[in-house]
User: What shape does this take?
Amino acid sequence: MQSSDTRIIHRRGSDELKMAPQPDGVLMGRKIQWFHHKSLAAWGYKKTQTDTFAVLHPLDEEKDNSTKTYPLYVVFHSSGHDVFSAVACIWQKGNHSIYHAPVGMYALYLDCRQNEDDWWWGGNSALEILSEDRRGIKKQPVEMRCIATVEWVADHYPIDRNRIYAVGNSMGGSGALGIAMCRGDLFAAVKVNVPAGVRHLVDRCDLEHTVLNGFSIPDPPVLVDYSAQNDPWSAGHQHLYRLMSENRYAMLGYWGNFGHANDDEVIEKENDLVHSFDLFQVALNQPYPAFTNADTDDTVPWADDGSIISDAAGQVNAYFRWGKVEEGEKHIEIPLRLLSPDERMSKFVFPQTAKTDITLRRLQKCHFPPGGQVTWKFGSCGGSVTADERGLVTIPQITVERQEKRLILHCENMAKQPDKKEGKTKNV
Assistant: This one.
């Protein structure tokens, strides 16, 4: 029976949506709440529908501390699940490990199974074009609903808005890519396990630059992807790796012959680096470096034609690490280093040095003018580069070592801070 307590999930003009929470429960010692709500006309559904989501509370939630905030872990389920069965996986260790939210975070579990038009989270799968209407930059109603739900949870719970993370498995990985990667103004980072399709991301972020009307997105979330070359659902990953690099977006990629596995223990037997990067260090209000063209990258096993050219485990950008950024209006400093074998046991041979291009993104105070000259220094090396037409600055092929060094950039003639609203930012 639904509670008489009603809450507004979203308001736009006179169009508001009320929902009724179900009686509270406890799951693995954590409070969990279920919500049912009807759709808003603004989301574009052809007819009104009812949807469900769940909010899982932190294990150590401090009810008497009105100032403490928590990260939000947003879960997109696979095609074999709905919101109810995805939550049920938490009972069993290794059952879709990515569904298991860290105990110190709030978690939001979304649903796309209850109504068939929402299937595949509004995108197309790796193996089938479900609809040409799902192509391009236009968002489907399910995508609008998911974003509105994230916003509502962030508004109604003590959420740290700088630390909202999207995760997904299989179909949910495809959904997390398509819905969250184009919303770098909302999500700090994204992590996907064997995503069953990358076309959703390619389309919504316009990675192939097919839109001619000046479309742009905020600097996207940092992406962690781990997929398997012996998994048919990973088809198309050659496009993901190529286009993320060409657009100089931040991605840490891992692969190995673990099939369509969702259990971390199974996956790490094939590639023990997949969880070596602390995704939750990434925050929305902190700049980050995007590494591209590194000489330590392994050859991606998906050839341009989609054939598999290697069965070896590998990585892209797995060894790079950065520290706390110091930023002023005219300069930025970011500590850079490589992952050390002292920090993690691995079958991989960790490099002593790595040459890579570095592009700084998500700048908060220091906005370089297009065409501006930017001086840089990294250890004993230094030089000058020109910001591109979007104000992005890329330092080509600098050598990063295990010993931390600070990359320092400086420009005298600075640009005004760009509008960071969706679709208006100039830092693409």
Notes: The chain has six helices and 21 strands. Residues 323-428 form one domain.
